[in-house]
Amino acid sequence: ALVTGFIGSFAQDHYRVHLDLAGIKDDRLRVMIFPPKITTDSVTWVFANSVPGTYEEHFWHRMVSNFRAYDASSVELPVHRSPDSMFVVARAQQLRYVTYDLDDS
């Protein structure tokens, strides 16, 4: 099953999210996110370290692998992974979508 979600309140400023629940391989879920138009040269993708209301760190970014960013022609854009929970995408004005694999634990 393919699950698609929308995050955001305005039609032009929403994120479209695709989760391929039928295509899980090796306990990894493929995530594809289409962000709204970006007007900056770079954009930073941050994965949460904790959940509001808890006092422990979860380090969700450790479960992310194969993070990739693409333009409208599916050409890969440069991505730099920081030592913590951030992925920095260069040439972000060309960004059309990102993909990554999410491990189950």
Structure description:
By secondary structure, this protein is mainly β. The protein has a single domain, classed as Sandwich (Immunoglobulin-like), CATH 2.60.40.3650. The chain has strands spanning about 1-5, 15-20, 30-35, 40-45, 65-70, 75, 80, 85-90, 95-105. It is globular, with a radius of gyration of 14 Å. It starts with a strand and ends with a strand. Mean pLDDT is about 85; it is low at about 1-10.
For the record, the count of structural domains works out to 1
- List low-pLDDT spans: 1-10
What's the rounded overall pLDDT mean?
Answer: 84
Shape field: globular
Query: What about the largest sheet?
Result: 6 strands, antiparallel
Total strands: 9
Compressed to H and E, one letter per element, the order equals EEEEEEEEE
Biggest sheet: strands side by side, in what order? 1-2-3-9-5-6
Helical residue percent? Answer: under 10%
Q: Per CATH, which architecture? A: Sandwich
The gist of it:
The protein is mainly beta and about 100 residues long.
Key features of this structure:
105 residues; mainly beta; Immunoglobulin-like; six-stranded antiparallel beta sheet; 9 strands; 46% strand; globular; disordered N terminus
Topology summary:
Blueprint: E1 2-7, E2 15-20, E3 28-34, E4 42-46, E5 64-70, E6 76-77, E7 79-81, E8 86-90, E9 97-103
Antiparallel strand pairs: 1-2, 2-3, 3-9, 4-8, 5-6, 5-9, 7-8
